[in-house]
Design brief:
magnesium ion binding; six-stranded antiparallel sheet; alpha+beta; AMPylase activity; 487 residues; magnesium; single chain; manganese ion binding; metal-binding; three-stranded antiparallel sheet
Length: 487
């Protein structure tokens, strides 16, 4: 049975310069759009969307012992430092512990004005809340590090963006909401004691193995490098574009964080930009590894009062090899190749070139390649206008696969390889057109498509034949959509 005593709040015990306490501003007539029952069960919460006191606690309508707080941070936005950032439309309500004794923040997004709203209204609209909820669940289903959500609610409160829209709430969950920008805030405001305290708490809470190191701050930064590199490798391997990789949107624990104008690739296009405000193409798909390193360098600068410059540079130098290692591991799994050969780099690069030049859907190609044991190679070749070019690459690929052996020295069969590939190459992803259809229906009061997509994307690698239409390629209007930060 849930009780308010199940909440803790370690961040509220830190000095007042870390945050501002804010009383949430309730929305009118809130009601559930979707409740993440499977995830909620991990925290001892009910299977059904709660009502009564628990709903009021989760939505900020009833106060806990500790008043919710808005965290203070800063950040580089499109490469320009902005000191005036913080939780502008979200509040840290408290913490919940799951069945594995892991502590998660409960963060309520869309609950009104804070000191960091920067003339905004502190609200979230229904469409952006649906997109974040669905994408965080889609990423979790794919095995990509991400924040999660307990659920989301809609209200009768109207919020004005380009038009009047319904206000909504997202109950976001993560082991931490601490960002690169938290460290930048204390560094640039010359609050070095507070910066050290923040680093100490991050180590204690999230990098406890670093406590055994002679240089715990270095050990912490090494793990930040490792986790960030692995996250970016997942993004690149699965065709995910974040859209706004500002340092205030970078989680210190390497989780995908702050979903705005995100997109999964349709046709493979390394230059794809999903954020229509990104005029300089700073956050294009193929720029994400470079920007991650840029952001880590900004974080390193903010840690320079704790770690010497020479060591920071040495640790930063590990990022690209670490990213390459993880990306190679993921792509080998997606192509069913376990061993490493020097020629594999060319196999990968020629595949990406072929997909780009032939404008081939990235997810569909890899799923069809995973099914040649069932459908043969024609289904793959039918994707291409130039079948001859595709045949050349496919011949090279299948010859390479014949060099993969089992532990007993036998060639791995097509069936064995493809079964393994289907476990890592999804049939279903959250294409933007699918999210838009769900949003359009939700704005008419029908939330069934949100629930249907949420259920579907929990199991993206399963065939789910009754849901096969959700694996269709996007219509012309829904292809390579460009979105705004309020999306």
């Amino acid at each position: 049975m849930f009780s308010p005593s199940m909440f803790s709040h370690r961040y509220a015990a830190q000095p007042a310069v870390f945050y501002t306490k804010v009383v949430p501003q309730p929305l009118d007539n809130t009601r559930w759009v979707v409740w993440n029952s499977h995830f909620a069960n991990q925290f001892g919460l009910p299977q059904q969307a709660p009502d009564g006191e628990l709903k009021r606690l989760l939505t900020g309508e009833k106060s806990l012992e500790n008043t919710p707080l808005a965290m203070k941070y800063a950040g580089h936005q499109f490469g320009v430092y902005n000191p005036d950032l913080g939780d502008g439309r979200g509040l840290l309500i408290g913490e919940l512990t799951n069945h594995r004794d892991e502590i998660f923040d409960l963060h309520l997004k869309g609950c009104g004005v804070t000191p960091y709203s920067r003339a905004g209204d502190g609200r979230a609209v229904l469409r952006s809340t649906i997109r974040e909820y669905l994408c965080s669940e889609a990423m979790a289903g794919l095995g990509i590090p991400t924040t999660r959500a307990l659920g989301m609610l809609v209200s009768d409160t109207l919020v004005y963006r380009d038009k009047s829209e319904q206000g909504a709430l997202l109950l976001r969950m993560s082991p931490t909401h601490i960002r690169f920008g938290h460290f930048e805030h204390f560094f640039y405001s010359e609050q070095f004691d507070e910066l050290k305290l923040l680093a100490d708490k991050v180590i204690e809470w999230h990098f406890s193995s670093a406590l055994d190191s002679e240089q715990p701050y270095q050990a912490m930064f090494e793990q930040v490098i490792e986790r960030t590199a692995e996250m970016i490798a997942y993004w690149q391997a699965y065709g995910f574009t974040h859209g706004v990789m500002n340092t205030d949107n970078m989680s210190i624990i390497g989780e995908t964080f702050d979903y705005g104008p995100f997109a999964f690739l349709d046709d493979y296009n390394p230059d794809y930009v999903c954020n229509h405000s990104d005029y300089q193409r700073r956050y294009a798909f193929n720029q994400q590894p470079r920007i991650a390193l840029w952001n880590l360098t900004a974080l390193a600068h903010s840690l320079s009062s704790l770690i010497c410059r020479e060591m920071l540079e040495q640790i930063l130098a590990r990022f690209e090899p670490c990213l390459g290692h993880h990306f190679s591991r993921l792509m080998r799994a997606k192509l069913g190749i376990n061993s490493q050969q020097q020629s594999d780099t060319r196999l990968f690069s020629t595949m990406f070139d072929l997909l780009h030049k032939q404008q081939i859907d990235y997810t569909r190609f890899l799923r069809e390649l995973s099914s040649i044991d069932i459908d043969g190679i024609d289904r793959v070749l039918d994707l291409f206008a130039d079948r001859q070019l595709a045949t050349q690459w496919l011949t090279h690929y299948l010859e390479r696969c014949q060099q993969e052996l089992t532990a007993s020295g036998e060639v791995i069969s097509d069936r064995q390889r493809c079964e393994a590939m289907r476990r890592v190459n999804p049939k279903f992803i959250l294409r933007n057109y699918l999210a838009q259809i769900a949003i359009d229906q939700a704005e008419q009061g029908d939330f069934s498509e949100v629930q249907r997509l949420s259920d579907l994307l929990k199991y993206p690698f399963d065939e789910q034949p009754e849901m096969s239409k959700y694996a269709d390629l996007p219509p012309a209007w829904g292809k390579d959509m460009s979105l705004s930060c309020s999306s």
